[in-house]
Write a structure and sequence with these properties.
- The protein contains 17 helices and 20 strands.
- By secondary structure, it is of the alpha+beta class.
- A hairpin with a 4-residue loop joins strand 15 and strand 16.
C-alpha cells in the first residue's frame, strides 16, 4: 500500500512582537520566539515551526528549541466550534520552521526563547454577526438603564417635579434605543427570509435530481461548503432570538453535517480534477465543464476558501492559483466579503514558499499600500528585502543563483509520490492511448456463450475486445437497469469509506489515493445478488465459490483509485492468506452508471483507457497461467469529472479454478 506523503512544512516570517494592550474581543496568543545555539545576538524574523507545519521534512539539523503546542484561531474559523485543524497556521506567515525552502533554516544569531504576547482579533466575527453582537450589548444597556431609572424614581425623583422632567428625556432615550433594537431585529429577520428564499429555490432544484445536480463537482463542493460553513453562520444569526424550534432541529441535524475535514476533502477533490484534466481555476469558477446539466459558478469567497484550504495543507502551488483567481474576480468588480488585503497576505507568502522572492516582495508592498498597519506585512517586507540583498551580493560575487524562479510567475506543479502520474493523467484525459491501427485490427466483436455453457447457449452475451495483450474484454447488457437499481438500493445503507489492504500487515485501512465508498453484498442479501454472481460465473467459466463477495462502489466528488494491482505481489504473500483461496486470478468489473466526463479505467503500462458504459462489464486475468502476476494489468480509476459513477466487481481467486483454467507449461504462459 502506498503511503500518503507528508505535507511540506508550513513556513513564514514571524510577525513583530506587539507590546500594546489587547483590544476588546481579541484573544491573547502566547508565542515562543526562536532561539539559536552559539554566538550572541537578538531575534530574527525568520519562519518558525508550529502545528501542522511540523509534519514536513526534518530540516537542516540546525533547528533548536522546543515549541509550545498552541491553540489559536484560524482564518475564517467560527467561534465556539471545535476544529480538527487546531494546529493549522492562523494566517499566512504564522507557522514556520526554517527559511523559504522547507526545512532549511535556523536563526543565524543566538538568543534565548523569550515569551511574548501577540494580539489576535478573532477573524470569525464577520460583518454578518457584528450587528447582533452590538444588538446584544444594546439589550444589556437597555435593561441596565431601565432599572437604573426605576431606582432613581423610587428613591428621590417623586419628591421633585423638576427632577421628574429628567425622567421624560430618559424614557424618550429608552424608546429610541428600543426602536433601534427593533430595527436590528427586523433587519435580522429580513436576512433570514432572504436566505430561506434562496435556499428554497436551490433545494427545490437539487432535490428534483440529486445525483444529476451533484454530478457537477462545483455543486458538490458548494453543498459541502454551505452545510459546513454557511448554515452555521445562519445558526449564529438565529440564536440571537428565541427560535427554539429551528435551533433544536438544526442541532439535531448538525451532527450529520459535513465537518472541516469534509470541506477540505471537497476542496482537494476540485484541485485533483483541476490537475488531472488540466483545468484552470477560471474554468472551474465559471462552471464550464463538459456534460454538465446545471450551471454552477464559484464566487470570489468560494475561490478564497479553496486557496485557504490549500494553504492549510501546505499546498502553496494551488494556494497561488486560487488566490490569483480571487484577485481576478475582485478586480472585475465582484462583491465579496473577502478583501484584497486578505488575498495578498496569503498570496505573497505562498509565492515566497515557491521560491519567487521578487514577486513576494512586490505583493507585500501592494498589501502594505492597501493596509499600512498590517502587523505581519511590515516584518515580512523587511525580511524579504534582506534576503533579496543577500541574493544580489551572491550574484555580484558570481555565486550560484539557487532557487531562482522565472519572472513570468508560472510555477510548476510539485512532483509527488506517483512515478507514472503524467501517463496516468494523460490517459484519463483520453490522451496517449496506444490503440494503434495495427493493434485495432486484432480486436474483434463476437457472441460469447461461455464455452457452450448451457445457460448462455440460447442468450449469449455480446463480447468486444478492448485490448489484445493482456486480453481485456467488454461484455454488453450484463445487468439490467432494474438489477442495477436494486443492487444500488441494497448497497447504499452499507456504504463506508473504501479501504485498501496494507501489504505488510494485511490490515484494511483508508488511503488518500482511493476516494470512494463501498459495501460488500452477500447472496443472502437479495436474490438479485445471487443471480448476478451466477451470471458472472457463466460468462467467465470460473467458479464464484472461492471468489470474494460482490463489492459495490460509488465514487464521490473527484472520486478515484490511483494505479494499483488487484493481485498480491511476491513481497505481499500474506495479503490474502486469511482467505485461504490463493491470489486474485481475475477481475470482473460491472459499470452500473454512465459518467458524463472522466471516470475511465486506465492501464498506464499498456496505454489503454476503457470508458464506463452502464450495463456493460470488463474482464481480465490478473495472473498468468503460471500463477505469476501479470504486471501489465496495473490499472486505475480516473477521477470523476462530471457525473456519478457506480461500479460493482467480483474478484475470482486461484483455488477452485485448477481445472477451469489449467496452468501453463512456462512462466510466461
Amino acid at each position: 500500500m502506498k503511503d500518503a506523503q507528508p505535507a511540506p512544512a508550513a513556513q513564514g516570517p514571524l510577525p513583530s512582537p506587539v507590546s500594546r494592550l489587547p483590544a476588546p474581543g481579541s484573544r491573547l496568543r502566547a508565542v515562543r520566539r526562536p532561539g539559536c545555539a552559539g554566538g550572541a545576538g537578538g531575534g530574527d524574523p525568520r519562519p518558525r515551526a508550529s502545528g501542522r507545519g511540523a509534519r514536513g521534512r526534518a530540516g537542516s539539523g540546525r533547528e533548536v528549541g522546543t515549541w509550545q503546542r498552541l491553540k489559536r484561531a484560524e482564518p475564517g474559523r467560527r467561534p465556539g466550534r471545535r476544529s480538527r485543524r487546531e494546529e493549522a497556521p492562523s494566517g499566512p506567515g504564522a507557522a514556520a520552521g526554517g527559511s523559504r525552502n522547507a526545512g532549511s533554516g535556523a536563526c543565524p544569531a543566538a538568543g534565548t526563547c523569550d515569551n511574548y504576547l501577540t494580539q489576535q482579533t478573532d477573524p470569525s466575527v464577520s460583518e454578518t454577526t457584528l450587528p447582533f453582537v452590538t444588538m446584544k450589548l444594546q439589550g444589556s444597556v437597555l435593561l441596565v438603564a431601565w432599572f437604573g431609572v426605576l431606582g432613581c424614581v423610587q428613591a428621590e425623583f417623586f419628591t421633585s417635579i423638576g427632577h421628574m422632567t429628567d425622567l421624560i428625556y430618559a424614557e424618550k432615550d429608552l424608546v429610541q434605543s428600543l426602536k433601534e433594537y427593533i430595527l436590528v431585529e427586523e433587519a435580522k429577520l429580513s436576512k433570514i427570509k432572504s436566505w430561506a428564499s434562496k435556499m428554497e429555490a436551490l433545494t427545490s432544484k437539487s432535490a428534483a435530481d440529486p445525483e444529476g445536480y451533484l454530478a457537477h463537482p462545483v455543486n458538490a463542493y458548494k453543498l459541502v461548503k454551505r452545510l459546513n460553513t454557511e448554515w452555521s453562520t445562519l445558526e449564529d444569526l438565529v440564536l440571537q432570538d428565541s427560535a427554539a424550534g429551528f435551533i433544536a432541529n438544526l442541532s439535531v441535524q448538525r451532527q450529520f453535517f459535513p465537518t472541516d475535514e469534509d470541506e477540505t476533502g471537497a476542496a482537494k477533490a476540485l484541485m485533483r480534477l483541476q490537475d488531472t484534466y488540466k483545468l484552470d481555476p477560471d474554468t472551474i469558477s465559471k462552471g464550464e465543464l463538459p456534460g454538465t446539466k446545471y450551471q454552477a459558478v464559484m464566487s470570489a469567497d468560494d475561490c478564497f476558501g479553496m486557496g485557504r484550504s490549500a494553504y492549510n495543507e501546505g499546498d502553496y502551488y494551488h494556494t497561488v492559483l486560487w488566490m490569483e483567481q480571487v484577485l481576478k474576480q475582485l478586480d472585475a468588480g465582484e462583491d465579496a466579503v473577502t478583501t484584497k488585503a486578505q488575498v495578498l497576505d496569503y498570496l505573497s507568502y505562498a509565492v515566497f514558499q515557491l521560491g519567487d522572492l521578487r514577486r513576494a516582495l512586490e505583493l507585500t508592498r501592494r498589501l502594505l499600500s492597501l493596509d499600512p498597519s498590517h502587523d505581519r506585512a511590515g516584518g515580512n517586507l523587511r525580511y524579504f528585502e534582506q534576503l533579496l540583498e543577500e541574493e544580489r551580493g551572491k550574484m555580484a560575487s558570481n555565486q550560484t543563483e539557487a532557487g531562482q524562479v522565472p519572472q513570468d510567475s508560472i510555477y510548476e506543479r510539485p512532483v509527488d509520490y506517483l512515478p507514472e502520474r503524467d501517463v496516468y493523467e494523460s490517459l484519463c484525459r483520453g490522451e496517449g492511448v496506444k490503440l494503434t491501427p495495427k493493434r485495432q485490427k486484432r480486436l474483434f466483436c463476437r457472441y460469447h456463450d461461455g464455452n457452450r455453457t448451457p445457460q448462455l447457449l440460447i442468450a449469449p452475451f455480446k463480447e468486444e475486445d478492448e485490448w489484445d495483450s493482456p486480453h481485456i474484454v467488454r461484455y454488453y447488457d450484463v445487468m439490467s437497469d432494474e438489477e442495477i437499481q436494486r443492487i444500488k438500493d441494497i448497497a447504499k445503507p452499507k456504504l463506508a469509506r473504501a479501504t485498501v489492504r496494507d501489504p505488510k500487515t494485511g490490515v484494511l485501512t483508508v488511503a488518500s489515493y482511493r476516494v470512494s465508498k463501498s459495501s460488500w453484498l452477500e447472496e443472502d442479501d437479495d436474490p438479485v445478488v445471487a443471480r448476478v454472481n451466477r451470471r458472472m460465473q457463466h460468462i467467465t467459466g470460473l467458479t464464484v465459490k472461492t471468489a470474494e463477495l460482490l463489492q459495490v462502489a460509488n465514487y464521490g466528488m473527484g472520486g478515484q483509485y490511483e494505479p494499483h494491482f488487484d493481485f498480491s505481489r511476491n513481497d505481499e504473500q500474506d495479503v490474502f492468506k486469511h482467505l485461504g483461496t490463493g491470489n486474485r486470478v481475475a477481475t470482473f468489473l460491472n459499470y452500473m452508471s454512465d459518467v458524463e466526463a472522466g471516470g475511465a479505467t486506465v492501464f498506464p503500462d499498456l496505454g489503454a483507457a476503457i470508458w464506463p458504459k452502464k450495463g456493460t462489464a470488463v474482464f481480465w486475468y490478473n495472473l498468468l497461467r503460471s500463477g505469476e502476476g501479470d504486471y501489465r494489468t496495473r490499472h486505475a480509476a480516473c477521477p470523476v469529472l462530471v457525473g456519478c459513477k457506480w461500479v460493482s466487481n467480483k474478484w475470482f481467486h486461484e483455488r477452485g479454478q485448477e481445472f477451469l483454467r489449467p496452468c501453463g507449461s512456462t512462466e510466461v504462459d
